[in-house]
Amino acid sequence: MKKVKTMSAIKEIPVNLPKLLTLFKTIVPKLTNDKYKGQYGRIGVIGGSLEYTGAPFFAAISSMKVGADLSHVFCQANAAPVIKSYSPDLIVHPVLDCLDAVDKIQPWLERLHVIVIGPGLGREPLILKTVTNVLKLCTKLQKPIVIDADGLFILNDNIDLVSGQRNIILTPNAMEFRRLFGEDVNSVRQKMSCLGDGVVVLEKGVNDKIHIPHTNEVYSMPTGGSGRRCGGQGDLLSGSLATFFYWSLQSNQPNPAYVAACASSYLVKRANSTAFKKFGRSLLASDMINEISTVFRSDFEDAETG
Q1: Which end of the chain has less Cβ packing within 10 Å, N or C?
Q2: What is the per-residue burial (b if ≥16 Cβ within 10 Å, else e) of 247-264?
Q3: Under CATH, domain 7-299 is a member of which superfamily?
Q4: Where are the beta strands (DSSP E) in 66-193?
Q5: Low pLDDT (below 50) residues in the chain
């Protein structure tokens, strides 16, 4: 019997980290008194249910900790008071389970720069249907989108929702990646090729991998972080990714999704390793949030930037 080729058969290209670190600094906007609130980024997070309130908070607050000015969370009504209690810095909309949720969300979408779909979303069929319609609306409005967690669950049988669209980043872990694209190399290549040149896939793992579907290129980020795999780290990545994505687009990078994916991958791994030195096995995602500013100042900013 012919042996099936797995993903290991696809050649991975190690990134040039020193070059990337220099590039990261070029997309970070300088802080000046000439800007008004919102110009450094307005991020929207679609997610949050009774069971999962931490995930949308982590995504939204990390987008602001990186440097976005405003972050909105569009969640189910019973999740809103809890999410609001976590931080007064977030703008929380308890609308996802309204019958007219899409109509309520639409006016806000037009003001937002990047939309994150999935953190803490849950899998209630009616909610998933609503969010599917929000996703369609986002693509119609040509909004840059990051899709994570249960947002990816929507795509398992509906990958055509993003195929051929522009400025979309998917952030699956290893299991979510297999559900989306299969396990053998031929399946992965075939399904990837259908995505077009406007979608990038950030596969999370020990070495995060950035897939460029239309070129069949796979870039491997360095090993980082620690052995501590607490919940919430993927949410920190999706939120920080949204801010980096906006900045990359604003700085007219030729490959903005790729640059943003590399930047968020690097930041979260570094925040994890920095926090691990302090907390070890007790490390939590909330500890990593507190390290974002330290890592950012050290690795992402020139002295005159901040």
Answers
A1: N
A2: bbbeeebeebbbbbbbbb
A3: Ribokinase (3.40.1190.20)
A4: 70-75, 91-94, 114-117, 145-147, 168-170
A5: 1-8, 305-306
Residues in the chain: 306
Q: pLDDT at position 302, please?
A: 76
Residue 98 · residue 74 · CB < 8 Å: no
Max Cα-Cα span within the chain: 68
The answer to whether 248 and 271 are in contact (CB under 8 A) is no
Q: What is the pLDDT of residue 65?
A: 98
d(CA 192, CA 258): 15
Number of H helices, E strands in the chain: 12, 10
pLDDT at 3: 42
Say how far residue 275 (Cα) sits from the centre of its chain.
Answer: 21
φ and ψ at 31, to 5 degrees?
-80, 120
CA 209/CA 57 separation, integer angstroms:
25
Instruction: Report the C-alpha gap between 274 and 227 in whole angstroms.
Output: 12
**Contacts of 199 by beta carbon, 8 Å cutoff, 6+ apart:** 162, 163, 165, 168, 169, 170, 213, 257
Break the chain into its structural domains and give their ranges: 7-299
Phi, psi of 203, deg, nearest 5: -90, 115
The helix (H) or strand (E) run that includes residue 42 is strand 42-46
CA-wise closest residue to 220 among 64, 16, 41: 16
